[in-house]
Design brief:
InterPro entries: vWFA_dom_sf (IPR036465). The protein has eight helices and eleven strands. It is an alpha/beta fold. It folds into two domains: about 20-90, no CATH class; about 115-370, Rossmann fold (3-Layer(aba) Sandwich). The strands form four sheets. It has a five-stranded parallel sheet, with helices on both faces. A two-stranded antiparallel ribbon has the order 1-2. The chain has a two-stranded antiparallel sheet with strand order 3-4. The protein is globular.
Length: about 375
């Protein structure tokens, strides 16, 4: 991906991932305060008349250690008792793969911990859709990040539709989380894991790295195998380092411009680990609570209702050109109840607009309802 486009990613993300909300937060380094503030005297932006390095009041929803009902009040300003220690970090969760719930005062309704998995097609045909995906990711940040900050902990990871060549050699496996950008530069996640956690939501350059996956992936896309592979216990104990938590609420976001076909027009086989007839059942069986802790989003090649399909030419280059209708992936997503999925299109979207705002508003409302918030 060209460097100017990387800058565009950072600028777009910084619109929602930076700002005054870090002012007054305790810190140990400038990196704790995002790109717009400095760490001065142990406080982002420096101590004010109300906040000093020895102050006992902070205004962050992620450091609360109360045991009250999570639904009793919104996680706005919270008072915690502290000492003169100025080395406290803005969040208290540690991503060890164990129970990370930090107390009854955090959470989106009953949902304390959230796992968010992006399954992104990075095959050559996706190159011309990079700006469309930028719109989607930017809108996700603007509409969803404020909601996600209410959770007790966040695991946000990306897998590609084939083995990701920029990962370390031992993690160039289908379902292994992206841990480096398209040029092989490691993503510097705050907790040293191959996925973003709560502190990284305020780091646009870190999130830029996570989504900078290029378009040089395998033209035989296997997004369903990648999804299930990312949640496999073997990878979860290895390359993915505790990303998936059975007791967390799992949101899966599938981004693809081509269906997951067996012997498609280009001669590709698609996903093979799980037979298509078992996709839906396997999805429900992922969670001990079934659909109660599942939500799925699809950004697919299908056109919006009443609009023409994007032209699809499977014979142009090794991966085709345009976007293909995706009946198999659509049916997979729609195997969930209607209030547990949302689908939109990669077709006919003008980059730089607000095409995905209604989608994100739908997702936000349905997630809150699913969590009883």
């Amino acid at each position: 991906m060209a460097r100017p486009l990387l800058v565009a990613w950072a600028l777009a993300l910084s619109a929602c991932f930076t700002g005054g909300f870090l002012s007054g937060q305790p810190c140990t380094a400038d990196s704790d305060c995002g790109p717009s503030l400095r760490c001065e005297a142990g406080v982002c932006g420096g101590p004010s008349a109300q906040t000093s390095p020895t102050s006992t009041t902070t205004a962050t929803p992620t450091t609360t250690t109360t045991t009250s009902d999570a639904t009793a009040a919104p996680p706005t300003s919270t008072t915690t008792t502290a000492t003169t220690d100025t080395t406290l970090t803005p969040v208290t969760s540690t991503s060890t793969g164990e129970d990370e719930t930090t107390g009854g005062g955090c959470g989106i309704g009953r949902c304390k911990d959230l796992d968010i998995l992006f399954v992104a097609d990075n095959s050559p045909s996706m190159l011309i859709k990079t700006l469309i995906l930028l719109d989607f990711i930017s809108t996700f940040g603007n509409e969803m990040i404020p909601e996600l900050r209410q959770a007790c902990s966040i695991h946000l990871g990306v897998v590609t539709s084939g083995p990701y060549a920029s990962n370390p050699p031992e993690c160039q496996k289908l379902g292994a989380l992206v841990s480096a950008d398209d040029d092989g530069n490691p993503c510097m996640f705050s907790e040293g894991l191959p996925y973003a956690t709560m502190p990284d939501l305020d780091m646009p350059l870190t999130l830029e790295c996570l989504f900078n996956i290029g378009a040089e992936g395998d033209p035989d896309e296997r997004p369903v195998d990648a999804l299930f592979g990312a949640l496999d216990p073997t990878l979860n104990m290895g390359c993915n380092q505790g990303f998936y938590r059975p007791d967390a609420f799992l949101t899966m976001i599938l981004l693809a411009d081509e269906d997951d076909d067996n012997n498609d027009a280009q001669g590709h086989d698609g996903s093979e680990e799980i037979f298509e007839s078992f996709w839906a059942g396997s999805l429900i069986n992922i969670k001990p609570t079934g659909i109660d802790d599942l939500y799925m989003i699809g950004l697919l090649g299908d056109p919006k209702t009443g609009e023409p399909a994007c032209a699809w030419d499977p014979s142009q280059n090794e991966d085709g050109f345009g976007t293909e209708t995706t009946p198999k992936l659509r049916a997979f997503i729609q195997s969930l109840p209607p209030d547990r999925y949302a689908i939109d299109t990669l077709c006919n979207v003008v980059p730089g607009g607000s095409a995905y705002v209604p989608l994100m508003q739908e997702i936000r409302a349905e997630l809150r309802a699913a969590c009883g918030a």
